[in-house]
Amino acid sequence: MKIAGVIKDYPSNTGFRIAYLQLSNSFYNNMNRTTFHVKIHKQADVDAVRKKIEEHKSLAKMHIAQLQDGVKNYSFSVLRNWLIVIQVFIGCFFFFISLSLYKQVRFTQTKDKGIVVDNITQIDVGYYTSIDFRALGQELLKSPHIEDVTFTTTPVLAETGDWYSSYNGNFAFTDNLDEQMQMNMFVIEPNFFDFFEIQLQKGNRFSDVNDIIINNAQLQTLPDKNPVGKSVKIPFLDEAKICGITNDYYYSTMQYPIAGLCFQQATEDVLKFTPYQYIYIKTKPENRAKAMEYTTAVVEKEKTKYVAPDKRFIELNSIQEAFNRPEKILFRIFGFLSVICILVVAFGIYSLVTLTIEQRKKEIAIRKINGAEIRDILVLFIKNYLLLVIVGNILSLPVAYFFIDRWLEYHVYQTALSWWLFALVFIVTCLIVLLSIFEKVRTAAKENPAETIKN
Description:
seven-stranded mixed β-sheet, four-stranded antiparallel β-sheet
């Protein structure tokens, strides 16, 4: 508990000083009065000290009320420190969450998906249809505005990744039933990989109707890690051959793992079991309007059923962008909250600093008279507030990390929470506090100490 005051005569009762007060920094100012800074012993009773001081005429000029103010100021100081820590805690929490969400959004947007969907339109013609797709494809290619056409039985991009295949069938290298395994079969046209620019990891494209291609995720489940050229048994093909292994591509959100796939060419028997439903056309951006006009006219001639008008024609880009929509919404929400919290923290700390400096103006004046420079006073205040910022960060960052780490567990493919996220949050909160106190402390330190003490 500290008080400051002005007396005419230095107290002569040494025993009183030792028992109740610690006097320090005594000196004479230009007004010929001793200015002092005292600290009451913790074990001393405030009322007893007040009574002793009143008994000493030499201390009659001292403002006795300052003793009680010291008790109040101490309580306020504790409350003020906790308020600053709480504000820093909240600001750090939302700021760290926002940075982590932004990092995950950027990760999902910039990561190579393994498939090119630019300038490709998906046309859903419905499941129950008697369309001759190959004849329809030839008709569509008559337009100079359409570069290529392909078909699939299931969407190339799926909003949910828990089911992604044309059908589920048995796969085996031998006739031994114990060696059979379930595999997701994906029925496609021979130009599928070139159309979507999906790269082969090993082997070749289709050269025969009995050829099949598996993706890398499926390769990891096979006992034989070099299956290219091996014969296998799958539905509708008794003697299929693995001709190649393709790279994995992201067909859904990164919350789902990439499933093992076996790509099989469409035959008459296969299409009877699982018919085509989706047409994909590739155009150039400048030709899209004319291409869609022509495609709409051709497709509407066919008998299509059970397809909502808004689902008939969809750009694949829009589907892929929709995968990140939940993360983007969360980022906007937490980003807005973090900005609000940072502003509240800045204004809150600025207000508390302003009040504190007003209460400690005499202390600053005494320190200046003792020879302290503005830099020394700034360091004193910065050191105190920097400690509070460190405490707030230590309490906040582990909690924020716990929440964001649990959220990322729902994403199979996720960004790493790098060390610089923690460093950036700490640096930003330090800058906010430093900017809040710098100008106020510098202004108070520049005031005339004699006028400050006199007032």
